[in-house]
C-alpha cells in the first residue's frame, strides 16, 4: 500500500486511461491534417476526415467505461471522472457540428481544440499519478515531495 502523495492524482486504470487519451490526441491531430488536406483542394480527404471522426467517438466512450469500471478498485477524484464525461460530450458535440455543417461548423473547430486541450490534460494528470506511484515509499512519505 502506498502513502498518499499531496498533489498527485489517483486515476483508475492509469495506463489504459493514458493510452486512450493519447489515441484521442492523435485522432484529433489527424483530423486537423485531413481537414487541411481537403480544404486545400484534395477533396478525397473529406471521406477520411468523416470516417475518422466517426471512429474517434469510440475512444472517450471506452475511456468513460474504463473509469467507471476502475472506480471499484481505485476511487479516483470526481474531477478525473468529470474530464471523462466532458471529453465524451466534447467529442459528440464536435461530431454533431461537423455532420450538421453550415453555420455549426463555427463550433466544430473550437470544440475540437477544447477536446485536444482536455485530452492533453488527462495524459498529463495520468502521468503525474503514475510517477507518484513509482516513487519509493520513503520519497512518497516526505512532505512537499510531489
Estimated structural class: mainly alpha
Q: In terms of per-residue confidence, which ranges show pLDDT below 50 for 5 or more consecutive residues? A: 1-8
Give the SSE order as H and E letters.
HHHHHH
Largest sheet, if any? none
Helix content: over 70%
N-to-C terminal Cα separation, in Å? 18 Å
Q: State the total count of DSSP E strands.
A: 0
How are the SSEs placed, and which strands pair?
Elements lengths: L13 H26 L5 H12 L1 H13 L7 H23 L4 H30 L2 H5 L5
Summarize the structure.
Helices cover 75% and strands 0% of the residues.
What report would you give on this structure?
The protein is mostly helical and 146 residues long. The protein has one domain. It is 75% helix and 0% strand. It has six helices and no strands. It has helices at 14-39, 45-56, 58-70, 78-100, 105-134, 137-141. Helix 1 runs antiparallel to helix 2 (45-56), helix 2 (45-56) packs antiparallel against helix 4 (78-100) and helix 3 packs antiparallel against helix 4 (78-100). The longest helix is centred in the last third of the chain and has 30 residues, at 105-134. The chain is elongated, with a radius of gyration of 18 Å. It starts with 13 loop residues before the first helix and ends in a 5-residue tail after the last helix. Mean pLDDT is 84; it is low at 1-8.
